[in-house]
Amino acid sequence: MGTSVQVTPLCGVYSENPLSYLVSIDGFNFLVDCGWNDHFDPSILQPLSKIASTIDAVLLSHPDTLHLGALPYAMKQFGLSAQVFCTEPVFRLGLLTMYDQFLSRKQVSEFDLFTLDDIDSAFQNVTRLTYAQNHHLSGKGEGIVISPHVAGHLLGGTVWKITKDGEDVIYAVDFNHRKEKHLNGINPSSFVRPAILITDAYNALNNQPYRRQMDREFADTIKKTLRGDGKVLLPVDTAGRVLELIQILESCWAEENLNYPIYFLTYVASSTIDYVKSFLEWMSDSIAKSFEKTRDNAFLLKHVTLLVNKNELDNAPDVPKVVLASMASLEAGFSHDIFVEWATDARNLVLFTERGQFGTLARMLQADPPPKAVKVTMSKRVPLVGEELIAYEEEQNRIKREEALKASLIKEEESKASHGTDTNMSDPMVIDASSTHPLPDVACPHGSGCRDVFIDGFVPPSSSVAPMFPFYENASEWDDFGEVINPDDYVIKDEDMDQAGMLVGGDMDAKLDEASASLILDTKPSKVISNESTVPVKCSLLYMDFEGRSDARSIKSILSHMAPLKLVLVHGTAEATEHLKQHCVKQVCPHVYAPQIEETIDVTSDLCAYKVQLSEKLMSNVLFKKLGDYEIAWVDSEVGKTENGTLSLLPLSTAPPPHKSILVGDLKMANFKQFLADNGVQAEFAGGGALRCGEYVTLRKVGDASHKGGGPVSPNSHPIYGLCMVRETLQFFAHLQRASKFPTPFTCNKLLHRLTGSDCGELSLKILSHLLSKGYVPHQSSFNSVLSFLCKLGHFGLAQKVVNSMPRFGCVPDVVTYNSLIDGYCKNSDIEQACFIVNKMCLGQCRPDLVTFNILFDGFSKLKMEKESFVYMGLMWKCCLPNVVTYSTWVDMFCKKGDLGMGYKLFNEMVSVGVWPNSIAFTSLIDGYCKAGKVEVALKLFGEMKGSSVLPNVVTYAALIDGLCKQGLLEKADSLFSKMLEDGVKPNSALYTSIIDGHFTKGNIDTAMKYMTKMCDQGIRLDITSYEVVIWGFCKNGQLDKASEVLRTMVESGLSPDKIMLTTFMDAHFKAGNLKAALEVYQDFLVRGFEPDVVTLSTLIDGLCKHGYLQDARGYFCREKANEISYTVLIDGICKDGQLDEVELVVKEMSDAGFVPDKYMYTSWIAELCKQGKLIEAFMLKNKMVQEGVEPDLLTYSSIIFGLAMKGLMLEAKHVFDDMLKRGISPDSAVYDILIKGYLKEGNKVAVLGLYDEMRKKPLKVPTVEAKFAGRGDLRCGEYVTLCRFGDASHKGSSPVKHQLSSKAPYARIIIRFETMFVAVLFALKSGYNL
Fold it and tell me: 1038: phi > 0 → left, psi -120 to 50 → alpha, else beta; which?
């Protein structure tokens, strides 16, 4: 059966109590965490006391009280003696945390639950591990492997991985996926599919804002208080989350050059930072890289002052300051006293960065609303004086006398009991150092390692005649060099060094000695006095989440990624635990447990596993094959039993059956193609997912894990079958070495090629070097194998040395040798060096071949160097003729360059010389014509491709469908998509993205979503480009809610929005009139750490200008990043605001910056001039525009015509209209609208009718209106217009036409749509009505 696993919570379930859990694996008991709260309530440790003696090992995850606070007490009171495992930072910082806890309470109470000696003793038996280190347990835990991994919450914080028989038990509480300033986040991919996952629900109901936003709000809040002459208190832990806060403050103070003092105040502040300075390898990658490059230690604090005594803080200048003081709960320590002093000043701020523990003062102050006053107990230790001192001394003397009497009696009894047994033991002058114990409250330079000397009289043995001092002869051992020395006498124990470092260490000023040691070594009689008082809370209280834990959304995503077989939930409120449990049952796994205190749950795996031995006889016949970092082999055996009854695998008694080939892992054809290419096998897709290797071999994927090959075995196929034969190769070389023989050149070359093809190139190089050193003369192909490997790694200098050395060993470089070098240089973009080698080959005896030129042309193609290609085309034709690879490379290069004429010319030439195009050539041309908008030509080529039996692949279909979608031919695109599926070609992400984008562009949202559903159903994950297209489509069609929903889905899938996506969102909100939402998107843009580029800033400025916030828009204008678009957008906003003087200044600034105004800028400027009636300036600007080579467009002319018409200058307006027609600019309905209104205003009905006839002749849509008589001679035109005469029909000349709105008009403030009025007026004019 599977590994037996039971979990028993001892504390910390369905609550926020400390963490402590019993995990039993096959009878081996782990105590995972041993936490206590800041109340140090022994009652919550009762479950631990019952099982402490059965614990086999203790695993500590974090260096804070909640995870290890009860360890000293449990070892002292409960008999816990198991070995403890943790990381180095957890050990060091956990020790300091407990020191600080003890000293904080000893100062204000008669704290006697544990002493400093108890703390030292608890941390002596600790084994320290590094991240990802596998530690194999022995004895009772044989077969169990434990390994710590990054948790991301506190420095050294650990996710424990316990492995037994291949099954993983993961203990992951208080983890953080976010990468912070001083810590890396958890890596969930290290814990995929564990058998059991134990995790917490502490944050299952909380969601957090982005980290950069939190950091900024944190710094802004503190600066606001300081600038208001206030002080800021941050109650913090001793050596945990405070380190992140220090880094944030250091960064902020350095960036803004702030000079407000910052103090870090704990009893062990100096020692904490000293140790942290040495833990850089445990911190974030950014800190480690910074130290490697600049040797700058992130914790060489420049703005934070370390204090270990409150007197130092009291003596500091009374100015605005920031103080980080322990404890975070405000139950004890310096933070408690500082809060009492500062709470009464309304200018001050108490900023909590973590939730207070239940029942503490911090938790009370974090209530909503906070209390207006709190009761606190102020305690301090004072020396005894007077009668109290005398009474204390008398009591101490009495105790000493009693102890001396007891000691005397005990010694007398011991002396009698030991008489005659051991001379040394009967000597009262010999004191056993191990039996002496220092006083609990007295420390010495070596801590518990001190040796006390006790001098006393001796009791003479009853058999002695007279008392005398004993004499012992010192019988030392001697050798040829003198007296033998025992090295152990000169070794200082590790624990002595650690304790000495703890108590004496610190900064250069030895502040720890002055503060902490003064309390430790103070033996003066003292007492604690306390008094209760009510403190009015006038200061500001604020909680900001800097706990460093993953939030609810991230926890759910990480758990889904881990996908455990069974899940155990601990540590969280009842509501949070039940919420996460219900979610996990539905989304993560069906087996979810949430046990109560002391409730044991059996989470044993359902798998059946048996322990068997592999007999030596069996293993001697097993042939291993290398697979990545592992070796695998077929094992044919039968099960038997050894003499002691253990199951064992024995060799078969009969001949083993033959084995069929089997694929291990999931092979992707694209990866396999690249693998073959890297190993010298040219392969390309031939349609239908088939991979054609050379002329004879075709590989086709049949299922998920099976592949089928076709064609006869040929030399072309040999590399495929020889890539996985490394072990046989090494065995062969080893056999030759033992026999002192050399391989034949052919055999050596074949075996070395297998090694390099199996990523063992370094080994092949060593073997070749060894053979050469023994005088072996290889074939040049052996050198070529090694050269290929070196060039692949980019070691061109070494590769060149190998080529130069070949003649010394009797080998002349051949064309393959040089081709390897040229290919390496081309892939490294060093095309100049590649050309140099080709030129050298042309002048030498080794002439370049077709492969040489194909490699070179491929390099030219990737770097778009078509001129160089023409030069070497001529050189190639002197040596050899191009093949299909050559032509395909040329066609692809010119098509990507946009020179379709040359590409098509080469394509036709290829056909004319008898080289039939392959799929690459066809696809390159099709893609080029589609991008140029010539889809009909592309479709024709596609037909030729299918007619010539060249199967199109997914790239071909993707190029063609993308071109059809961009031309709006969606029906053809849909039809082609269906045809592709019929041909058995599976679409990829790029193809789906193209067709989805096309339908969104046309507004076919439902169809686009259908394709998106198909994409997901086929298991194709949306990449960032696909999400951008979908979000843009929803934004374009005004469905911002759905776009936001897609964005949330994308983030939950592990992808982060990029600049383009956020800019699209911002622009959509601006266009929808939602200014607030647009600005929130921009803030999110900044919080994610993106630097606004010119597109983002231009979008922001344009949106603000169009919403009337010109001044705000100017504030975002950045001259350093501006381009023509930025200036044009700003000028357009200024023009619409009517500030023409300001426009001239900005245009001058634009010209000085080297940018030339475009037609859009001129048009905005001209439009505003015309709007303000400044027609002369408008004409002058238009003439300047033409002189500078900027052609006016329709909008420019429309603006000028509008200005002239508004002034009644219809003759001039008609001249401008005619000029526009001469320049080939066709007017639209808006231009005719302006002219007709102008003519109507002056009563020129002939001109109106003429314009109407022009509109009829042009392809302009002029709406018609059905007119009916409505009685009394009135004429009803449409729904809203009624024409009627006033007076007699004989008075035509003075009869105005009245137009009035119907009561049913939906827009009461709009008199009439122009088109309706226009047709109605024309109707009136033709009917003889006068206007």
Answer: left
